[in-house]
């Protein structure tokens, strides 16, 4: 989705659509930051895909993803494993999403891009930058609700912490 010519500006988006997409992104990160992770799969279509990849793999179009979920069932399984099977030090995220840009709107939905930063706070109070990068979204509307048909999280660094358990 980021194959546009560098420096080319996308068309000016419909302000109502821009606001709706920004609201979707805000609701999404608040769901994660508020630890309502069981609600997270509902932001995706039934067949929605969620990928987390490094910038290097994304730019080389390599298929290897750090996280790959194909469909709501896999998204639910990820949260179930996080809650019941994974062992990790408790922590929380605080997302900042910026530079939201609607890249395209058409019969197949909407394409959007945004930047993100995540700060992680550990149980002992230690606060540290955790991740930053870009998100590329294919968003569709179902019954008046915007949902992710595909969300690709592109991490700027290939250096990944072992605590990559909570979704971005």
Any overview of this molecule?
- By secondary structure, this protein is α+β, with helices and mostly antiparallel strands.
- It has one domain: Nuclear Transport Factor 2, Chain: A.
- Helices cover 22% and strands 43% of the residues.
- The chain has 3 helices and 6 strands, in the order αβαβαββββ.
- It has helices at residues 15-33, 55-59, 72-84, and strands spanning 44-54, 67-70, 91-106, 109-122, 127-142, 145-155.
- A 6-stranded mixed β-sheet has the order 2-1-6-5-4-3.
- Strand 5 and strand 6 form a beta hairpin.
- The longest helix has 19 residues, at 15-33.
- 24% of the residues are buried.
- The mean pLDDT is 90.
Instruction: Give, in spatial order, the strands making up the sheet with the most strands.
Output: 2-1-6-5-4-3
Tally of structural domains: 1
The level of helicity is 10-25%
CATH 2nd-level architecture: Roll
State the secondary-structure class. alpha+beta
Total helical elements:
3
Strand content: 35-45%
CATH third-level topology: Nuclear Transport Factor 2, Chain: A
Major β-sheet profile:
6 strands, mixed
Kindly state the mean pLDDT as a whole number? 90
Q: Kindly provide the radius of gyration, computed on alpha-carbon positions and rounded to a whole number of angstroms.
A: 16 Å
Distance between the termini: 19 Å
Low-pLDDT sequence parts: none
The gross shape turns out to be globular
> What's the CATH class, please?
Alpha Beta
The tally of strands reads: 6
What order do the helices and strands follow?
Answer: HEHEHEEEE
């Amino acid at each position: 989705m980021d194959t546009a010519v560098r420096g080319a500006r996308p068309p000016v988006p419909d302000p109502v659509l821009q606001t709706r997409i920004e609201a979707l992104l805000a609701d999404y990160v608040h769901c994660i930051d508020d630890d309502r992770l069981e609600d997270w799969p509902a932001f995706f279509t039934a067949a929605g895909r969620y990928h987390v990849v490094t910038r290097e793999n994304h730019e080389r179009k390599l298929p290897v993803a750090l996280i790959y979920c194909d469909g709501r069932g896999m998204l639910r399984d990820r949260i179930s494993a996080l809650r019941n099977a994974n062992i990790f030090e408790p922590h929380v995220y605080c997302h900042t999403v910026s530079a939201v840009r609607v890249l395209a709107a058409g019969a197949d939905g909407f394409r959007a891009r945004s930047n993100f930063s995540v700060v992680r706070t550990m149980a002992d109070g230690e606060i540290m930058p955790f991740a930053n990068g870009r998100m590329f979204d294919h968003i569709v509307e179902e019954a008046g609700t915007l949902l992710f048909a595909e969300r690709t999280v592109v991490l700027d660094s290939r250096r990944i912490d072992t605590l990559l358990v909570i979704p971005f």
